[in-house]
Every structure is written in structure tokens, then in C-alpha cells.
Amino acid sequence: QVQLVESGGGLVQAGGSLRLSCAASGRTFSRSTMGWFRRPPGKEREMVTSMSWTGTTDYADIVKGRFTISRDNAKNTVYLQMNNLKPDDTAVYYCAGTDITTWAYWGQGTQVTVSS
């Protein structure tokens, strides 16, 4: 059974930092694209960032320069370093992995709350 388990969420003041982790099991993702999505309160889910298995990254404009995705294929884990957090970053953050080109695998999510 494939599982993605996020950790590292919490409550932080504006301007602070958090590092999210996503540990995968049941399947190797070393040849998959991994990404982070988020669902702000009352809004649709949106893509935050992704990293292909070759290391190519993509970021939503609203997080460029503040968030960094990384991965450790040996640990089957992907990370999201979030700096200079803003109240608008408050959301449930989800880790996801692809099966060929489809976002087929999802974690349960971790809550990030940024206070002003």
C-alpha cells in the first residue's frame, strides 16, 4: 500500500519559517515528480511547487523566493522549506507524487497556520 505522510505543520507567526516533510512508503518515487499543494480555508486546492525526478522545479508565483522544494530519493522523502511566511500561506498542505504524468498519490495533509 502506497502512503505519503506529511509532517512539520503548525502555527507560526508571520515572517517565520517551517519545514514540511513527506515520507513515502510502499513504492519508490525516485523516478516520479513530487509536489506540494495547498488548500486555503474556503478556497480550491492549488499547486505550490513540484520537482521532477531530474531535479527540475516549478513554483507558483506567490511562493517564489520564499519556498524551496527538495528531495532525498534515498529516503523516499520530499521536503518543503517555507520562509517569510505570510497569513495568506495558511492552508492544509498536501504532498503528492505522480504515476507517469498523473498526480496519483496523495498524503492526508498537514495544517499550516500563519498568524499576523
Describe the structure.
This protein has strands spanning 3-7, 10-13, 18-25, 34-39, 46-51, 57-59, 67-72, 77-82, 91-99, 102-106, 110-115. The termini are far apart. The mean pLDDT is 96. Strands 2, 4, 5, 6, 9, 10 and 11 form a seven-stranded mixed beta sheet that branches. Helix content is 0%, strand content 55%. It is mainly beta. 31% of the residues are buried.
Mean of all residue-level pLDDT scores? 96
**Radius of gyration over alpha carbons?**
13 Å
Shape: globular
Series of H and E elements? EEEEEEEEEEE
Strand content: over 45%
Q: In DSSP terms, counting alpha (H) and pi (I) runs of 4 or more, how many helices?
A: 0
Helix content: under 10%
Global structural class: mainly beta
N- and C-termini, Cα separation: 40 Å
Number of strands: 11
Which regions are unreliable across 5 or more consecutive residues at pLDDT < 50?
none
